[in-house]
Design brief:
alpha+beta, about 35% strand, about 140 residues
Length: about 140
Amino acid sequence: MNTLTTIKTTFALLLFQQITFAQETKKETTVPQYTIENCVNHFELDKAKQTKVGYQYWFADKDFTQENTLKMSIVEPGKSTHAPHHHPEEEFFYVLEGSASFFLDGKTVVVGPNTSLYCPPNAEHGISNAGNTNLKYLVIKKDLR
């Protein structure tokens, strides 16, 4: 067998192995059975996850949805969930209650209820409570499995 034939054969075997592995990996991913019972999610405080600055409640996480997640965050006065950061996913915030300080790429604005905030992919951003009462907001984020 000449060198070119050996290289072609090795490449073909590696490609076949990659395709087979990718198909096996996809088979392992289970999609939930969607029903009216699990597609309606009413907020329950006792099911919320306690955080260092308040709590969060997942209406739809990456294990349930096909692509996007929906979370409600409650942040105590003067606190933030984390320092400004960036990630490859775009992200939306929707302020329900309170006053939010929104940081985006070096600029900050303070907003109130019924305001949406958009974070493009890889933009440095952060949100914190700028008021005297709890800040309550929704977070919608694409899941880049």
